Amino acid sequence: MEKIVSLCKRRGFVFQSSEIYGGLASTWDYGPLGSELKRNVKEAWWKAVVHHRDDVVGLDASILMDSKVWEASGHTKNFHDVLVDCKQCKKRFREDHIKDNKCPACGKTDFTEGRAFNLMFKTQLGAVAGENSDAYLRPETAQGIFVNFKNVIDSTSRRLPFGIAQIGKSFRNEVTAGNFTFRMREFEQMELEFFTSPQDADKFYSQWINERFQWYQDYGIKKENLQLREHPKDELAHYAKGCTDVEYRFPFGWSELEGIANRADFDLKQHADFSKKDLQYHDQINNKKFYPYVIEPSGGVDRATLAFLVDSYHEEEVEGKTRVVLRLHKALAPIKVAILPLLKKNTDIVNLAKNIKKELQKSFVCVYNDTAAIGKLYRRQDEVGTCYCVTVDVDSLQDKQVTVRDRDTMVQDRIAIDQLQTYLTEKLKY
Ligand code: ATP
Predict the structure, then answer these.
(1) 325 pLDDT exceeds 70?
(2) 139 pLDDT exceeds 90?
(3) Percent over 70 (pLDDT), the chain
(4) Ligand 1-lining residues (CB < 6 angstroms)
(5) How far apart are CA 266 and CA 242, in angstroms?
(6) Which residue minimizes the CA distance to atom 18 of ligand 1?
(7) What is the average pLDDT score of the chain?
């Protein structure tokens, strides 16, 4: 894990937030490469869950919502972690993270009584502080979807089964921090609420578990590092009919990437109760009104991004030296093509390289780099997962060809400059 954290900082994937002030706990900033990678992860999810399907639409709800939303959803009352302190080493833990009643830090078994701690961040709306102006930063994106259920039906004429998807920031005042970007106080979620008739809920629950398990593999995560964990009955929320986590084998152990839950009709019923609005679905064919069931695949952008980084990290011996390479899926790699001049003092080579970049960057995310010798430049691009390096040399000026090097095989092809676009388009297809 240290290697990943160090690479992330050194190469500009992830920085500690507010680092020059000593760093703010459990908050992280994505640097130039990290922000590209995270965008690509979100894009891959949106494609699979929205664009490549006929039955899902998108939504972008606001972070601030009426505080009644959180009363209806149960968050005001129940969104607690129960915390205990180890009386020996004084460290604080989530009660549900303690195994065999042993302190994870010192191994002793002497804890304080558990205390509930609400995870929502409270803030105020408007200038006058007081009961009515209290608001919360949303702790999940899902509720923005439920409160817009009727708006989406009315504006799109969708019939069941259909889903509403959303990607956005969520905030939780996590008390047990750590493990890099795995647990943050401000993070992004990718959530889908898939509405179905109660009769079809089990079928879609299984389907979505399979779809989401497959998605991580489609984007390069090795199957042996993924597992499904079905929640036992006593772990389920009282309304839930089932929940299965997709877990990844992180260096710190198997941990949740995403949860897929059958939430039954709890959420819409709650919001109907609290808002006094009719949120039932009208089945016009059978002229029946009912509350749909909801299947919810709920994943974390940051956890997925971290898993893709960890899983793609490779070290190998090449000519007696260690080559670090991020074998990221082409769709996720932050940089698709690096254009490298062999001699940075030769202005003809430099100009040609810069012109090639100008053309290629219309189609692919490209960088130009002339700050080191070619061997070093290749290593630097390998380390951040750049798919192809295009090298412009003295011969390129005469034969109008360049060398294209593949990140994974390190095989080099000589390609005519006027064929480069076609060649790379083919190679970068996914
Ligand atoms: P955990 O048990 O690890 O706290 P959770 O079960 O509370 O997670 P959910 O409420 O199901 O998480 O949230 C759905 C997804 O959102 C999680 O699977 C995870 O990917 C992501 N997520 C939740 N909390 C955080 C966090 N603090 N930092 C980063 N991602 C998070």
Answers:
(1) yes
(2) yes
(3) 98
(4) 140, 172, 174, 183-184, 187, 189, 256-259, 298-300, 302-303
(5) 13
(6) 258
(7) 95
Are the beta carbons of 44 and 52 closer than 8 angstroms?
Answer: no
Give the 3-state DSSP-derived string for 151-170, with helices as H, strands as E and coil as C. Answer: HHHHHHCCCCCEEEEEEEEE
Average pLDDT over residues 114-143: 86
Give which of 45, 117, 66 is closest to 304, Cα–Cα: 45
State yes or no: pLDDT of 129 exceeds 70: no
Q: 173 burial class (0-12, 13-18, 19+ CB within 10 angstroms)?
A: middle
Q: Which pTM value belongs to this model?
A: 0.93
Of 360, 355, 426, which Cα lies nearest the Cα of 396?
Answer: 355
pLDDT digits (tens, 9 = 90+) for 46-103: 999 999 999 999 999 999 999 999 999 999 998 888 889 999 998 888 888 888 888 9
Structure tokens at 283: 């089945």
Contact between 165 and 211 (Cβ < 8 Å): no
Strands in 53-114 per DSSP E: 56-59, 80-85, 92-94
* 202 close to 161: Cβ distance less than 8 angstroms: no
CA 275 – CA 72 distance, rounded (Å): 9
**Best mutation site among 79, 182, 183, 305 for ligand 1 pocket (most ligand atoms within 8 Å of CB):** 183
Kind and range of the H or E run holding 391: strand 388-392
Question: Is residue 412 within 8 Å of 423, Cβ to Cβ?
Answer: no
Ligand 1, atom 29: nearest CA belongs to which residue? Answer: 183
Name the residue among 98, 70, 74, 71 with its Cα closest to residue 84. Answer: 98
CA distance 401 to 395: 7
Q: Which of 373, 372, 370, 365 is nearest to 354 (CA)?
A: 370
Q: d(Cα 269, Cα 260) in Å, to the nearest integer?
A: 20
Rounded Cα distance between 391 and 405, Å, is: 8
> For residue range 216-274, what is the model confidence (pLDDT) as tens digits?
999 999 999 999 999 999 989 889 999 999 999 999 999 999 999 999 999 999 999 99
277-302 per-position pLDDT tens digit: 999 999 999 999 999 999 999 999 99
Question: Which tokens is 414 given?
Answer: 């000589």
Contact residues for 133 (Cβ-Cβ < 8 A; gap 6+): 124, 125, 126
Check the CA dihedral 58-64-69-73 and report its sign.
positive
Q: What token pair was written down for 240?
A: 């839930």
- Which is the closest atom of ligand 1 to the Cα of 184? 28
In the block, tokens 């709890």 appear at: 266
